[in-house]
Amino acid sequence: MKLTSFFAPARAALLAAGFAMVALTAADALASAPMAKTNAPGFHRFMLGDFEITAISDGTTDLPVDTLLKGVTKEQADEILAKNFLKSPLETSFNAFLINTGAKLVLVDTGAGGNFGPTLGRMLANFKASGYQPEQVDEIYITHFHGDHIGGLLADGKAAFPNAVVRADKQEADYWLSEDNAKKAPDAMKGFFQAAKADLGPYISAGKFKPFTGGTDLVPGVKAVPTGGHTPGHSMYVVESQGQKLVLIGDLIHVAAVQFPDPSVVIGFDSDSKIAESERQKVFAEIAKGGYLLAAAHLSFPGTGHLVADGKGYRFLPLNFTQIH
Torsions phi, psi of 27, nearest 5? Predict the structure, then answer.
């Protein structure tokens, strides 16, 4: 008998035991590793024709949506959320969108900045992580003046985007920057007026706030469209390149699981719920019929996808992930 044949079973047993020990050691090491407890930087990029679009996360916060929604009972809202594996308070995304047309760099909304606590205000850091610098932004378009959309205009009390011109509908600006309106506002709303004045202040002082009126072409490929109701001068922005269209609808929707299948449901944040509902119904129908992309401030990040008509409502189909080379 050859010695190699004699020792073969023993060698196999030793090797098996060795592999088992390595596996146990590796398992022990993996089990003892601390959890990272962080995500990658919050940005997502895709192409729209020749334009580069970057969705940027400002963070999330929990909202008691089952009591904020109007047109459904709390029990109905909770049931719908549960069917979508969700619950209230709902962790809600806060999103901004960056458009690089090749000639202009345009930011739509800026997040909350320091207006709404530690889980928000991350837009600027994520903006930088996406590969851009604040000094590169040419124009900033604001959907409306709620603090979670304008707070990121400031950084350390100064203009966060020093070279940018800020634009918004004149009706929106006139309402929130009015001293008379601020004095008449309920105590719960006074902070919104104060935030608008503070956040826009450096740009107004520098002559870099330039409101527009109604539907306006802003830069080639980007147009403002009035969609009042959520606030007096709420605007959405339509982006178009090479026949492809993206509609940035701002706060026309807050709770996808409820308001896509039933667009008649409104939310307590709306200043005029009837107008807000009417605008949502109209815009959703146009987006679904045209097959356009939709993006919104409070859809689950990156907040972008298509709408498909489904009975009296719609199904939301999130944008398929595409690797940009």
Answer: -65, -45
- Please report whether residue 325 resides in a domain: no
**Per the domain annotation, does 13 fall within a domain?**
no
Rounded Cα distance between 245 and 252, Å, is 18
**Hey, what amino acid is at 212?**
F
Q: 257 with 213: CB under 8 angstroms? A: no
Residue 58 has pLDDT above 70, yes or no: yes
Q: Let me know if residue 255 belongs to a domain.
A: yes
DSSP letters spanning 108-157: E----TTSS-TTS--HHHHHHHTT--GGG--EEE-S---HHHHGGGEETT
Q: What is the dihedral of CA 154, 157, 159, 161, to 10 degrees?
A: -50
List, in sequence order, every beta strand (DSSP E) within the chain.
Answer: 43-48, 51-63, 69-70, 90-100, 105-108, 139-141, 154-155, 158-159, 165-167, 216-219, 222-226, 235-241, 244-248, 266-267, 293-295, 304-310, 313-318
Picking from 200, 102, 210, the residue whose alpha carbon sits closest to that of residue 160 is 200
The domain that contains 72 carries what CATH number?
3.60.15.10
Contact (Cβ atoms closer than 8 angstroms) between residue 231 and residue 146: yes
Could you tell me the two tokens for 307?
């709408």
Residue 168 within a domain: yes
Neighbour count for residue 160 (Cβ, 10 Å)? 22
Residue closest to 146 by CA, chosen among 257, 42, 268? 268
What single-letter amino acid sits at 312? Answer: K
Assessment of whether the complete model's pTM goes beyond 0.70: yes
Q: Domain span at residue 71?
A: 43-318
128 pLDDT tier (thresholds 50, 70, 90)? very high
User: Of 149, 148, 128, which is closest to residue 137 (Cα–Cα)?
Assistant: 128
Specify the number of domains making up the chain: 1
Cβ atoms of 17 and 9 closer than 8 Å: no
